[in-house]
Specification:
Structural class: mainly alpha
Largest sheet: none
Number of strands: 0
Number of helices: 16
Strand content: under 5%
Radius of gyration: 21 Å
Distance between the termini: 33 Å
Order of helices and strands: HHHHHHHHHHHHHHHH
Shape: globular
Oligomer: single chain
Length: 452
Protein backbone atom coordinates (compact mmCIF):
# COMPACT_ATOMS: atom_id res chain seq x y z
CA UNK A 1 0.00 0.00 0.00
CA UNK A 2 1.36 3.43 -1.00
CA UNK A 3 1.24 6.91 0.53
CA UNK A 4 -1.40 9.33 -0.79
CA UNK A 5 -0.53 11.92 -3.48
CA UNK A 6 -2.57 14.83 -2.14
CA UNK A 7 -0.14 17.72 -1.53
CA UNK A 8 0.50 20.92 -3.48
CA UNK A 9 3.10 23.73 -3.36
CA UNK A 10 1.50 25.45 -0.35
CA UNK A 11 1.85 22.25 1.67
CA UNK A 12 5.52 21.98 0.67
CA UNK A 13 6.02 25.62 1.72
CA UNK A 14 4.17 24.98 4.99
CA UNK A 15 6.32 21.91 5.67
CA UNK A 16 9.68 23.54 4.94
CA UNK A 17 9.06 26.96 6.48
CA UNK A 18 7.02 25.43 9.30
CA UNK A 19 9.96 23.30 10.43
CA UNK A 20 12.42 26.19 10.26
CA UNK A 21 10.56 29.34 11.29
CA UNK A 22 10.96 28.56 14.99
CA UNK A 23 14.66 29.33 14.43
CA UNK A 24 13.72 32.98 14.00
CA UNK A 25 11.97 32.97 17.37
CA UNK A 26 14.64 31.10 19.35
CA UNK A 27 18.02 29.39 19.03
CA UNK A 28 19.71 31.82 16.60
CA UNK A 29 20.47 34.12 19.51
CA UNK A 30 23.12 31.79 20.93
CA UNK A 31 25.23 32.84 17.95
CA UNK A 32 25.11 36.43 19.25
CA UNK A 33 26.82 35.21 22.41
CA UNK A 34 29.59 33.68 20.29
CA UNK A 35 30.30 36.57 17.91
CA UNK A 36 28.33 39.62 19.03
CA UNK A 37 25.50 41.23 17.07
CA UNK A 38 27.49 41.89 13.88
CA UNK A 39 29.13 38.47 14.10
CA UNK A 40 25.71 36.85 14.26
CA UNK A 41 24.55 38.91 11.26
CA UNK A 42 27.53 37.78 9.17
CA UNK A 43 26.88 34.18 10.26
CA UNK A 44 23.21 34.61 9.33
CA UNK A 45 23.99 35.51 5.72
CA UNK A 46 26.80 32.97 5.33
CA UNK A 47 24.39 30.31 6.56
CA UNK A 48 21.78 31.71 4.19
CA UNK A 49 24.19 31.09 1.31
CA UNK A 50 24.79 27.56 2.57
CA UNK A 51 21.07 26.81 2.63
CA UNK A 52 20.43 28.44 -0.73
CA UNK A 53 22.89 25.92 -2.16
CA UNK A 54 21.09 23.15 -0.25
CA UNK A 55 17.71 24.26 -1.59
CA UNK A 56 18.91 24.45 -5.20
CA UNK A 57 20.64 21.06 -5.15
CA UNK A 58 17.74 19.38 -3.36
CA UNK A 59 15.18 20.89 -5.71
CA UNK A 60 16.88 19.36 -8.75
CA UNK A 61 17.46 15.87 -7.41
CA UNK A 62 14.26 15.45 -5.42
CA UNK A 63 12.04 16.70 -8.24
CA UNK A 64 13.65 13.91 -10.27
CA UNK A 65 13.81 11.18 -7.60
CA UNK A 66 10.20 11.50 -6.45
CA UNK A 67 10.22 9.11 -3.48
CA UNK A 68 9.66 9.42 0.26
CA UNK A 69 12.87 9.66 2.22
CA UNK A 70 14.31 12.77 0.62
CA UNK A 71 18.10 12.67 0.64
CA UNK A 72 18.01 9.00 1.70
CA UNK A 73 16.11 8.12 -1.50
CA UNK A 74 18.62 10.18 -3.47
CA UNK A 75 21.62 8.39 -1.93
CA UNK A 76 20.37 4.89 -2.66
CA UNK A 77 19.94 5.81 -6.35
CA UNK A 78 23.15 7.78 -6.87
CA UNK A 79 25.83 6.51 -4.45
CA UNK A 80 25.07 3.28 -2.61
CA UNK A 81 23.56 1.47 0.40
CA UNK A 82 26.04 2.47 3.13
CA UNK A 83 25.76 6.16 2.29
CA UNK A 84 21.96 5.85 2.06
CA UNK A 85 21.79 4.23 5.50
CA UNK A 86 23.86 7.00 7.06
CA UNK A 87 21.94 9.77 5.33
CA UNK A 88 18.70 8.24 6.57
CA UNK A 89 20.03 8.30 10.14
CA UNK A 90 21.26 11.88 9.70
CA UNK A 91 17.77 12.99 8.75
CA UNK A 92 15.93 11.05 11.45
CA UNK A 93 18.17 12.43 14.21
CA UNK A 94 18.04 15.97 12.78
CA UNK A 95 14.25 16.06 12.85
CA UNK A 96 13.78 14.09 16.06
CA UNK A 97 16.16 16.35 17.99
CA UNK A 98 14.59 19.44 16.42
CA UNK A 99 11.20 18.10 17.44
CA UNK A 100 12.43 17.66 21.02
CA UNK A 101 13.75 21.23 21.16
CA UNK A 102 10.49 22.58 19.74
CA UNK A 103 8.21 20.96 22.27
CA UNK A 104 10.58 21.88 25.11
CA UNK A 105 10.37 25.52 24.03
CA UNK A 106 6.58 25.32 23.69
CA UNK A 107 6.24 23.95 27.21
CA UNK A 108 8.62 26.46 28.77
CA UNK A 109 6.95 29.32 26.94
CA UNK A 110 3.57 28.34 28.40
CA UNK A 111 5.21 28.26 31.84
CA UNK A 112 6.63 31.78 31.30
CA UNK A 113 3.25 33.09 30.17
CA UNK A 114 1.54 31.56 33.19
CA UNK A 115 4.13 33.06 35.56
CA UNK A 116 3.48 36.52 34.16
CA UNK A 117 -0.19 36.00 34.96
CA UNK A 118 0.67 35.01 38.53
CA UNK A 119 0.52 31.21 38.16
CA UNK A 120 3.43 28.83 38.72
CA UNK A 121 2.94 25.68 36.65
CA UNK A 122 5.45 23.04 35.45
CA UNK A 123 6.25 23.03 31.73
CA UNK A 124 6.63 19.25 31.31
CA UNK A 125 2.90 18.29 31.14
CA UNK A 126 2.21 20.76 28.32
CA UNK A 127 5.27 19.48 26.45
CA UNK A 128 4.01 15.89 26.56
CA UNK A 129 0.43 16.94 25.73
CA UNK A 130 1.59 19.02 22.76
CA UNK A 131 3.58 16.15 21.29
CA UNK A 132 0.73 13.70 21.86
CA UNK A 133 -1.74 15.91 19.95
CA UNK A 134 0.69 16.45 17.07
CA UNK A 135 1.43 12.72 16.90
CA UNK A 136 -2.30 12.02 16.65
CA UNK A 137 -2.64 14.60 13.87
CA UNK A 138 0.22 13.03 11.89
CA UNK A 139 -1.24 9.58 12.48
CA UNK A 140 -4.58 10.61 10.98
CA UNK A 141 -3.32 11.91 7.62
CA UNK A 142 -0.75 14.02 5.80
CA UNK A 143 -3.19 16.40 4.08
CA UNK A 144 -4.72 17.63 7.33
CA UNK A 145 -1.29 17.70 9.01
CA UNK A 146 0.34 19.96 6.43
CA UNK A 147 -2.76 22.09 5.89
CA UNK A 148 -2.68 22.91 9.60
CA UNK A 149 1.06 23.52 9.30
CA UNK A 150 0.56 25.98 6.45
CA UNK A 151 -2.03 27.96 8.43
CA UNK A 152 -0.11 28.24 11.71
CA UNK A 153 3.21 28.87 9.92
CA UNK A 154 1.68 31.71 7.91
CA UNK A 155 0.22 33.15 11.13
CA UNK A 156 3.61 32.96 12.92
CA UNK A 157 5.39 34.62 9.98
CA UNK A 158 2.77 37.38 10.00
CA UNK A 159 3.59 38.17 13.65
CA UNK A 160 7.22 38.84 12.63
CA UNK A 161 6.06 41.26 9.93
CA UNK A 162 3.71 43.04 12.37
CA UNK A 163 6.51 43.40 14.93
CA UNK A 164 8.74 44.86 12.23
CA UNK A 165 6.08 47.43 11.36
CA UNK A 166 5.42 48.12 15.05
CA UNK A 167 9.00 49.28 15.71
CA UNK A 168 8.74 51.90 12.92
CA UNK A 169 11.73 50.95 10.73
CA UNK A 170 11.07 54.03 8.56
CA UNK A 171 12.05 56.14 11.60
CA UNK A 172 15.16 54.37 12.97
CA UNK A 173 15.56 56.48 16.12
CA UNK A 174 11.94 56.45 17.25
CA UNK A 175 11.99 52.97 18.80
CA UNK A 176 15.12 51.20 17.60
CA UNK A 177 18.49 51.89 19.25
CA UNK A 178 21.02 50.38 16.86
CA UNK A 179 23.38 53.33 17.24
CA UNK A 180 23.62 52.82 21.00
CA UNK A 181 23.48 49.02 21.16
CA UNK A 182 25.64 47.81 18.28
CA UNK A 183 29.36 47.29 18.87
CA UNK A 184 32.26 45.98 16.84
CA UNK A 185 33.11 42.28 16.81
CA UNK A 186 33.77 41.56 20.53
CA UNK A 187 35.69 38.33 19.82
CA UNK A 188 37.07 39.16 16.39
CA UNK A 189 36.65 36.98 13.32
CA UNK A 190 37.08 33.81 15.36
CA UNK A 191 33.83 34.78 17.07
CA UNK A 192 32.16 35.09 13.65
CA UNK A 193 33.25 31.56 12.78
CA UNK A 194 31.98 30.31 16.15
CA UNK A 195 28.64 32.03 15.49
CA UNK A 196 28.13 29.87 12.38
CA UNK A 197 27.22 27.05 14.78
CA UNK A 198 23.91 28.72 15.59
CA UNK A 199 23.63 30.84 12.44
CA UNK A 200 22.32 27.80 10.60
CA UNK A 201 19.44 27.60 13.11
CA UNK A 202 17.72 30.30 11.02
CA UNK A 203 17.32 27.77 8.22
CA UNK A 204 17.84 24.26 9.62
CA UNK A 205 15.26 21.90 8.17
CA UNK A 206 14.29 23.60 4.89
CA UNK A 207 15.58 20.46 3.15
CA UNK A 208 12.69 18.65 4.85
CA UNK A 209 10.47 19.62 1.93
CA UNK A 210 12.02 16.66 0.11
CA UNK A 211 10.28 14.25 2.47
CA UNK A 212 6.99 15.10 0.73
CA UNK A 213 8.26 13.92 -2.67
CA UNK A 214 6.07 10.81 -2.75
CA UNK A 215 2.95 12.61 -1.54
CA UNK A 216 2.84 15.70 -3.81
CA UNK A 217 0.65 15.65 -6.89
CA UNK A 218 3.31 17.17 -9.16
CA UNK A 219 6.87 16.74 -7.80
CA UNK A 220 8.50 18.58 -10.70
CA UNK A 221 6.48 21.72 -9.94
CA UNK A 222 5.56 21.58 -6.26
CA UNK A 223 8.95 20.70 -4.76
CA UNK A 224 11.12 23.39 -6.43
CA UNK A 225 8.40 26.04 -6.04
CA UNK A 226 7.68 25.24 -2.39
CA UNK A 227 11.35 24.88 -1.45
CA UNK A 228 12.72 27.99 -3.17
CA UNK A 229 9.81 30.22 -2.08
CA UNK A 230 10.31 28.86 1.44
CA UNK A 231 14.00 29.77 1.35
CA UNK A 232 13.14 33.32 0.25
CA UNK A 233 10.64 33.56 3.13
CA UNK A 234 13.27 32.48 5.64
CA UNK A 235 15.89 34.93 4.37
CA UNK A 236 13.39 37.77 4.84
CA UNK A 237 12.38 36.55 8.30
CA UNK A 238 16.01 36.12 9.40
CA UNK A 239 16.96 39.67 8.35
CA UNK A 240 13.93 41.16 10.14
CA UNK A 241 14.58 39.10 13.26
CA UNK A 242 18.17 40.28 13.61
CA UNK A 243 17.32 43.90 12.79
CA UNK A 244 14.52 44.20 15.35
CA UNK A 245 16.08 42.19 18.18
CA UNK A 246 19.53 43.78 17.98
CA UNK A 247 17.93 47.22 17.77
CA UNK A 248 16.11 46.84 21.09
CA UNK A 249 18.11 44.42 23.26
CA UNK A 250 21.82 44.45 24.22
CA UNK A 251 23.77 41.74 22.46
CA UNK A 252 25.00 40.40 25.83
CA UNK A 253 21.37 39.72 26.82
CA UNK A 254 20.36 38.23 23.46
CA UNK A 255 23.30 35.81 23.55
CA UNK A 256 22.72 34.79 27.18
CA UNK A 257 22.40 31.00 27.58
CA UNK A 258 19.10 31.32 29.47
CA UNK A 259 17.48 33.58 26.88
CA UNK A 260 14.68 31.39 25.52
CA UNK A 261 12.59 33.60 23.23
CA UNK A 262 14.36 36.76 21.96
CA UNK A 263 11.57 37.97 19.65
CA UNK A 264 9.04 37.67 22.47
CA UNK A 265 11.33 39.63 24.80
CA UNK A 266 11.87 42.19 22.06
CA UNK A 267 8.11 42.72 21.87
CA UNK A 268 7.97 43.13 25.66
CA UNK A 269 10.65 45.85 25.52
CA UNK A 270 8.50 47.91 23.13
CA UNK A 271 5.96 48.37 25.93
CA UNK A 272 3.09 47.37 23.65
CA UNK A 273 0.73 44.82 25.18
CA UNK A 274 -0.59 44.04 21.70
CA UNK A 275 2.86 43.18 20.35
CA UNK A 276 3.76 41.24 23.50
CA UNK A 277 0.69 39.00 23.26
CA UNK A 278 1.09 38.67 19.50
CA UNK A 279 4.72 37.55 19.69
CA UNK A 280 3.92 35.16 22.52
CA UNK A 281 1.36 33.54 20.23
CA UNK A 282 3.74 33.66 17.26
CA UNK A 283 6.57 31.99 19.19
CA UNK A 284 4.24 29.27 20.45
CA UNK A 285 2.76 28.66 16.98
CA UNK A 286 6.21 28.49 15.38
CA UNK A 287 7.36 25.84 17.88
CA UNK A 288 4.20 23.80 17.33
CA UNK A 289 4.47 24.07 13.53
CA UNK A 290 8.10 22.97 13.63
CA UNK A 291 7.37 19.99 15.87
CA UNK A 292 4.48 19.00 13.60
CA UNK A 293 6.66 19.08 10.48
CA UNK A 294 9.48 17.23 12.22
CA UNK A 295 7.18 14.35 13.14
CA UNK A 296 6.13 14.15 9.49
CA UNK A 297 9.69 14.19 8.12
CA UNK A 298 11.40 11.90 10.63
CA UNK A 299 8.65 9.31 10.19
CA UNK A 300 8.95 9.39 6.37
CA UNK A 301 12.69 8.81 6.53
CA UNK A 302 12.34 5.97 9.07
CA UNK A 303 9.46 4.45 7.08
CA UNK A 304 11.47 4.53 3.85
CA UNK A 305 14.41 2.76 5.47
CA UNK A 306 12.07 0.09 6.83
CA UNK A 307 10.38 -0.37 3.46
CA UNK A 308 13.79 -0.94 1.82
CA UNK A 309 14.89 -3.35 4.60
CA UNK A 310 17.63 -1.05 5.88
CA UNK A 311 15.67 -1.33 9.14
CA UNK A 312 13.18 -4.02 10.20
CA UNK A 313 10.32 -4.16 7.67
CA UNK A 314 7.84 -3.65 10.53
CA UNK A 315 8.52 0.09 10.18
CA UNK A 316 7.63 0.08 6.48
CA UNK A 317 3.89 -0.37 7.10
CA UNK A 318 1.25 2.09 5.85
CA UNK A 319 -1.99 2.54 7.79
CA UNK A 320 -4.81 0.84 5.87
CA UNK A 321 -7.23 3.73 6.40
CA UNK A 322 -5.17 6.90 6.85
CA UNK A 323 -2.31 5.89 4.52
CA UNK A 324 0.36 7.20 6.89
CA UNK A 325 3.59 5.51 8.15
CA UNK A 326 1.93 5.09 11.52
CA UNK A 327 4.41 2.69 13.12
CA UNK A 328 7.34 4.99 12.41
CA UNK A 329 5.38 7.93 13.82
CA UNK A 330 4.59 6.09 17.05
CA UNK A 331 8.11 4.68 17.45
CA UNK A 332 9.95 8.01 17.23
CA UNK A 333 7.61 10.01 19.51
CA UNK A 334 8.88 8.61 22.87
CA UNK A 335 12.48 9.35 21.81
CA UNK A 336 11.60 13.02 21.27
CA UNK A 337 9.81 13.13 24.65
CA UNK A 338 12.85 11.75 26.53
CA UNK A 339 15.23 14.30 25.00
CA UNK A 340 12.77 17.17 25.52
CA UNK A 341 12.29 16.39 29.21
CA UNK A 342 15.86 15.60 30.25
CA UNK A 343 18.39 17.30 27.92
CA UNK A 344 19.22 21.07 27.97
CA UNK A 345 18.00 23.05 24.95
CA UNK A 346 21.43 24.12 23.62
CA UNK A 347 22.64 20.51 23.61
CA UNK A 348 19.53 19.26 21.78
CA UNK A 349 19.99 22.01 19.19
CA UNK A 350 23.62 20.96 18.76
CA UNK A 351 22.64 17.32 18.20
CA UNK A 352 20.21 18.45 15.51
CA UNK A 353 22.71 20.81 13.88
CA UNK A 354 25.48 18.18 13.77
CA UNK A 355 23.25 15.60 12.11
CA UNK A 356 22.02 18.22 9.66
CA UNK A 357 25.58 19.24 8.80
CA UNK A 358 26.55 15.66 8.06
CA UNK A 359 23.58 15.48 5.70
CA UNK A 360 24.58 18.72 3.94
CA UNK A 361 28.14 17.45 3.53
CA UNK A 362 26.72 14.49 1.61
CA UNK A 363 24.77 16.72 -0.80
CA UNK A 364 27.73 18.00 -2.90
CA UNK A 365 28.96 14.41 -3.32
CA UNK A 366 25.45 13.40 -4.33
CA UNK A 367 25.15 16.27 -6.82
CA UNK A 368 28.49 15.50 -8.48
CA UNK A 369 27.57 11.83 -8.77
CA UNK A 370 24.09 12.61 -10.10
CA UNK A 371 25.30 14.97 -12.84
CA UNK A 372 28.16 12.62 -13.78
CA UNK A 373 25.98 9.51 -14.08
CA UNK A 374 22.97 11.23 -15.68
CA UNK A 375 24.12 14.42 -17.46
CA UNK A 376 21.62 17.07 -18.51
CA UNK A 377 19.47 15.79 -21.35
CA UNK A 378 19.70 12.09 -20.48
CA UNK A 379 16.74 12.05 -18.05
CA UNK A 380 13.82 14.36 -17.40
CA UNK A 381 14.38 16.77 -14.53
CA UNK A 382 11.69 18.81 -12.81
CA UNK A 383 14.23 21.56 -12.09
CA UNK A 384 17.82 22.29 -13.17
CA UNK A 385 19.80 24.36 -10.69
CA UNK A 386 22.13 26.93 -12.29
CA UNK A 387 25.91 27.45 -12.12
CA UNK A 388 26.84 23.83 -11.42
CA UNK A 389 29.30 22.92 -9.86
CA UNK A 390 29.68 26.26 -8.01
CA UNK A 391 26.83 25.62 -5.50
CA UNK A 392 28.24 22.17 -4.67
CA UNK A 393 31.77 23.48 -4.06
CA UNK A 394 30.38 26.41 -2.03
CA UNK A 395 28.26 24.09 0.08
CA UNK A 396 31.17 21.76 0.81
CA UNK A 397 33.44 24.64 1.88
CA UNK A 398 30.77 26.17 4.15
CA UNK A 399 29.99 22.79 5.74
CA UNK A 400 33.66 22.23 6.60
CA UNK A 401 33.89 25.75 8.07
CA UNK A 402 30.76 25.20 10.16
CA UNK A 403 32.08 21.87 11.47
CA UNK A 404 35.09 23.80 12.76
CA UNK A 405 32.73 26.32 14.37
CA UNK A 406 30.85 23.54 16.16
CA UNK A 407 34.12 21.98 17.27
CA UNK A 408 35.13 25.25 18.97
CA UNK A 409 32.19 25.07 21.37
CA UNK A 410 30.99 21.46 21.34
CA UNK A 411 34.00 19.37 20.32
CA UNK A 412 33.10 16.43 22.55
CA UNK A 413 29.58 16.22 21.17
CA UNK A 414 30.92 16.36 17.62
CA UNK A 415 33.33 13.49 18.27
CA UNK A 416 30.64 11.50 20.10
CA UNK A 417 28.23 11.90 17.17
CA UNK A 418 30.89 10.83 14.68
CA UNK A 419 31.63 7.76 16.82
CA UNK A 420 27.92 6.92 16.92
CA UNK A 421 27.58 7.04 13.13
CA UNK A 422 30.74 4.94 12.66
CA UNK A 423 29.36 2.26 15.01
CA UNK A 424 25.98 2.38 13.21
CA UNK A 425 27.77 1.99 9.85
CA UNK A 426 29.64 -1.08 11.10
CA UNK A 427 26.36 -2.59 12.34
CA UNK A 428 24.72 -2.00 8.97
CA UNK A 429 27.63 -3.32 6.89
CA UNK A 430 28.14 -6.52 8.90
CA UNK A 431 24.58 -7.32 9.95
CA UNK A 432 21.70 -5.44 8.33
CA UNK A 433 22.92 -5.24 4.73
CA UNK A 434 22.22 -8.96 4.20
CA UNK A 435 18.47 -8.18 4.30
CA UNK A 436 18.57 -5.38 1.72
CA UNK A 437 17.17 -6.19 -1.71
CA UNK A 438 19.35 -3.89 -3.72
CA UNK A 439 17.63 -4.30 -7.08
CA UNK A 440 14.18 -3.53 -5.66
CA UNK A 441 15.23 -0.05 -4.51
CA UNK A 442 15.55 1.52 -7.94
CA UNK A 443 12.11 2.97 -8.50
CA UNK A 444 13.07 5.37 -11.32
CA UNK A 445 12.86 4.25 -14.96
CA UNK A 446 16.22 5.75 -15.93
CA UNK A 447 18.74 4.59 -18.54
CA UNK A 448 22.01 3.06 -17.37
CA UNK A 449 24.40 5.66 -15.90
CA UNK A 450 26.97 7.19 -18.22
CA UNK A 451 30.01 4.92 -18.53
CA UNK A 452 28.19 1.71 -17.56
Amino acid sequence: MNLLKVLGPIHVWGLGVGIVLVGEFMGWNYGVGKGGAFGALIACFISGLLYTCVAMIDSEITSTVAAAGGQYAQAKHTIGPLMAFNVGLFMVLTYTMLNASDIQVAGQLVQIGAQQLGHDIPWQPFTVLCLAVLTWLNYRGVFATLTVNFIITAAAFTTIIILFIGVQPWNPTAVLLHKDLLTNLPYGWLGVIAALHFGIWYYLGIEGTCQAAEEVRSPGRALPLGTMSGMITLLIAAAITWYVSCGLLPWEYIGWDNELAPLYDTARVTGSNFLTVLLFIGTLLSAIASANGCINDSARAWFSMGRDRYLPTWFGAVHPKYRTPFRSILFLTPIAVIFALYIPLAEIITFSILSGLLNYTFMPLNMWSFRRKWPLGTIRRGFEHPFHPVPAFTLMFLCITTFFAVYLGYGRQLLAMMAFYIIASVWFAFYRYRYVRRGAQFTMAWPKPAGY
